[in-house]
Each structure stands twice: as C-alpha cells, then as structure tokens.
TrEMBL record:
The keyword Endoplasmic reticulum does not apply. It comes from Roseovarius nubinhibens (strain ATCC BAA-591 / DSM 15170 / ISM). Pfam families: ExbD. The chain crosses the membrane at residues 12-34. It is a single-pass membrane protein; Single-pass type II membrane protein. GO terms for molecular function: transmembrane transporter activity. One of its GO terms (cellular component) is plasma membrane. It comes from the Bacteria. It is found in: Cell membrane. This is Biopolymer transporter ExbD. Belongs to the ExbD/TolR family.
Amino acid sequence: MIKPRQRSKREPTIALINIVFLMLVFFMVAGTLAQPLDPELKLVKTEELDGIAPPDALVVHADGRLSYRGADVASAEAYLSAREAEGEEIAVRLVPDRDLDAGALVTLTAELRRAGAARVLVVTERGLQ
C-alpha cells in the first residue's frame, strides 16, 4: 500500500504582493502631496516693487524694441555679434514685456536661433495661485 504524500501548505504570496503594491502606491501618493499653506499666512505683496530685468538679459519692450544692459539694440543679429565679441557663451536670456505680442516673441526667438544662439531662455514672472 502506497502512503499518500503530504502536501505542504502554500504560502499566501498573492496577498503579500498585494500588500507591497498598496504600500508602494501609498508612499508614492504621500510623498508627492504638498502641505497646504496655513490659512492665516499672508504672503508678501510686491505690487509697488519695480521689476528689474537680470543684467545679462535681452529685454524686449511692448513695442518690439530691444535693449541690453540699458542700451538699445538694433536687431537680434547685432546683439549676438556683440556677445560673440565679448567672448561669452551664446545662451540668450530673453525678458519680454507682458504686453508684447506672442507672435512677435516667437519670431524674435526664431531670429535669435537662426543668428547663432545655442539656447534661448525666456524669463517670466512666476505667480503663486
């Protein structure tokens, strides 16, 4: 007579995998959520401050006029040739006026790229909403 073979008990690996997955999701969600601001906190108002462009930035005024370090610049090509003469890296920081037409800004960035700018960085105001 053959003795029946005893089966070993199975470990509940599926349940363990589910728990690990749920912990992973929990820590992903808990790590990405930011704490809300204190309702009593009053942020600083900067309405009266003058907005000053960074000193090494090309400023584009609302009428399309360009200026660099306080002096007017004739064109994007003239600006880049002056920067090449200074021996600086050609990464342009562009500060557009809020009222500048978006099409004019896109055209100017394309002109800067065609004239030899390696990168064109548009500097903007960041608001907290």
